[in-house]
Amino acid sequence: xxxxRALSIPTPTGEARIDALRxxxxxxxxxxxxxxxxxDLKQTLSSVSPHLIEEAHELLEAIETAPAGDDTHVVxxxxxxxxxxxxxxxxxxxxxxxxxxxxxxxxxxKLVRRHxxxxxxxxxxDAAAALSNWEAIKRGERAAKxxxxxxLAGAPQAMPALQRAKRLGEKAxxxxxxxxxxxxxxxxxxxxxxxxxxxxxxxxxxxxDAAAREHLEHELGDVLLASAFxxxxxxxxxxxxxxxxxxxxxxxxxxxxHSLARPLGECSLEQMMAAWQAAKSVVx
Length: 284
What we know:
Elements: H1 16-31, H2 38-42, H3 45-65, H4 72-94, H5 100-113, H6 116-119, H7 127-144, H8 161-174, H9 182-204, H10 210-233, H11 238-260, H12 269-282
């Protein structure tokens, strides 16, 4: 067994943020050293990247569920995500592709370039104007690189559907494709609901075919999309709204199970619905 090697802590600079980041860099460098951690040494960009998605979701959950005044879990999850980015950059450095310095400089240059109202002579009266400027600059950058210059470019296909719907809606609105107010978006949702109801009746008919089922799926998707777009108008994140609704459903369902105290298969629908309503009054 080789002797343990103590961690070399960089000399403090007096700036807490820089000192903490330097310590994290030292730790990750040590993990990736020839005599470091076998697991960390085995990792590649492809193997590490899925963990970043998982860590991002864990951080989001921590933010949304943190007790008032207690950020312990949020700090822990943010640290895990930060470590993942630092590790990814170190792996790329070992593969002679890029390093953390290049990553930090690239995003710094982008932030300065896309905030002319802060770092230049641009102007943004409010957050909406700042976002509109940001999107316009992005489109210009894409056009200069001969990339997709659509107003909708830049929302990855792999994003969760509601999250991507929110992002595409924001981009369309920023480009001027928008209702005058939220009532227009709500009216559109009502219209889509009516079309869904008609498609539902057609798909449930005794002579319904595969095309009717496909149309029902189409109309259900339109309702979900219109709901997500409405969220943009009332400044509510549809992905977050869906997560919160799922948490309420799960909490109420578990409370219903507990109150019935026997397998659901042994309960009638009327008994389950009565227990569900009771759970709703207890679980907000």
